[in-house]
Design brief:
It contains 6 helices and 3 strands. By secondary structure, the chain is mainly α. The protein has a 3-stranded antiparallel β-sheet with strand order 1-3-2. Helix 2 crosses helix 3.
Length: 125
Amino acid sequence: MKPLPRISDAEWEVMKVLWEKSPATANDVVERLRDATSWNPRTIKTLLNRLVGKKALGFEEDGRMYRYYPLVSEAECARAESRSFLNRVYGGALTPLIANFLQEKELSPEEIEELRRLLDQKGKG
């Protein structure tokens, strides 16, 4: 399995647009991010180029335009980021991470039940 690229917070915003709908041109991405960010279109195009360089995005030429598409899935990147965060902040220990989140966030009865189900499922196999 090839290592996944490290993606910055700003690059994540661009990737989310392309995970939702691709292929897309740079102008499509600029348009989708217009209301969510105050970024200059040049900034977004720079982020697209960085992501191509990191092999997180590919592109196809369509005349004078480039249509970008993800080369890595959102699920793969989320798993890699989760592992990185867990290792960086908690030294790889899962229990303190979960305890911290449980102390900081109110959970609905449905969320508690879902967590119980996941733990029961994990305990079985």
